[in-house]
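A protein record in our archive is deliberately plain, so that people and models can read it alike. The record that follows is passed on verbatim for readers who wish to inspect the format.
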Amino acid sequence: MRYFILILCITPLLFGCKSSKKSQDAETVGYQPQPGQKLINRMGDTIVPVILTEAEWKQKLSPEAFRVLRLKGTEAAFTGELWENKKDGLYTCAGCGQVLFSSSAKYDSGTGWPSFFRPDDDNLIKRDTDYHVGYPRTEVMCARCGGHLGHVFEDGPPPTGLRYCINSVSLGFVESKQ
């Protein structure tokens, strides 16, 4: 019994888990663009960061999009509008409209979330390690607004071997005109 209590006490310290529901719900995205920060896309263009207050984000986003993008939530698998989308086009950040992924890099991973083997521009995706489920995962965020998108795993298809597992509610979609 004594060891069980010890494990309960040190597990949050070892794995970075939050000890209360309240602190998890109030947590915001770790990466936030800063005023005056310059983002450069792969073409060499300067991208202006989008910086809003929490109240402005709540007004701009649906409650579900706010929960996922700003509070690092996860939508239920197989429920998002874009996980089965097979149209040609570009996937954008639902928070700021920045282009993040192309349909040419999308594939069916069978997970129930839109999956991509590479971003459209590595410079516009930020990565960080999170421990929210008790073990390390690589979180991906929009570099322009800091919105939580999902995670990247090393079990994807060639040519990258990566699987960007992205919440559908974190994305917008612009269909190609043909």
